[in-house]
Protein 1
Amino acid sequence: MADGPCSGNAVQKTENAALEMYRFAALMLGSETEAQRLVENSVAAVEIDPCADPCAAKGQVRERVIDGALEIMHRQDPASFAALPPAEPGSGCLEEEAPLSGEDLSHLLTGAGRGTLREWLGRLTQAQRAVFLQRAVLGWTNADTAQAINRIARPLVWTPEAVGSLFRQALCSLASALVHAATAAHA
């Protein structure tokens, strides 16, 4: 096999991007089968040669997977995206600091806490799940998350402030779920 423009490094980057998006889609959709189908269709629809431009291909796949997951979630529960959730002023959980660090979230996504996280995600509305995962996993801003949701939600009601409020509520809820799980495990 001759060395062509598609080096092993480019292939590896493309495979890693597909795997990353598969994991993200499985969390978003709660179904590994549906996530696999979405990622395969998204990769097949990419119009950029991943060997010529792996970064552009990764970006296009990411965008298609996110939009596809949001479209599926919206079809499953359109009411969840139709109106902003009520704000919970003064909950006291988050003032300045998040109850979970980035390291804590990373451990939940890949480590022993994965089952607790998946169980907790299953109790969220589709909109809550979408906001939490875009912010916590992708590291998107409130504005980026609102923009992504507004591409599928009608009417276009999602604002960065609403996303931020919902994300803080989700973090508090997750922290509470983790405390309860730890208490139950030690009882």
Note: The two ends are 60 Å apart (CA to CA).
Protein 2
Amino acid sequence: MQKLASIKLAAIIFLSLLMAGCTGNSTVQEIVSPELTLSAEGPLYAGANSATATWEFDLAEILGNSQIKVSEAKITSVEVIVLPSENLPAMEKMVFEVTSKNTPMTRVGLFEGAITAGQTIALTIAAEQENLASAFADGKMTFVGDFDLIDEEYLGNVEFTLKVKFEAWIN
């Protein structure tokens, strides 16, 4: 009986150590992009149009240590503002995606409603997302905002300011 109790105790200790080893020393950190310009170059036509912005960064500089790596990351918020321009067309709805060299195009946010110049729109962020750790390892991300143009045609460019917040697990 005592031998069986010893085996159970040893198994419990082993499983505890195994679980502790799996959790690692990860900490969660918020990472915020600088204000970027999301641009769509005209001519633009009725229906879906794409605006893009690229963020290049030094991860060691952001995290303050070159030995730290991002093991998991996701977007927690996206704020977009249409920059006022002469004769800006009527727009609505935006689907927001992110990609990088080693990260496939991933849909992360949606805004449904009218897009008005000068007004901040906060996108609804997908509850489940692809892990964006590889995008941080790449040191460069491309953001894509697909928006609908209501008018038939607009010859000018449309620009938005963009700020993206991430939650990153680092170790």
Note: The longest strand covers residues 140-154.
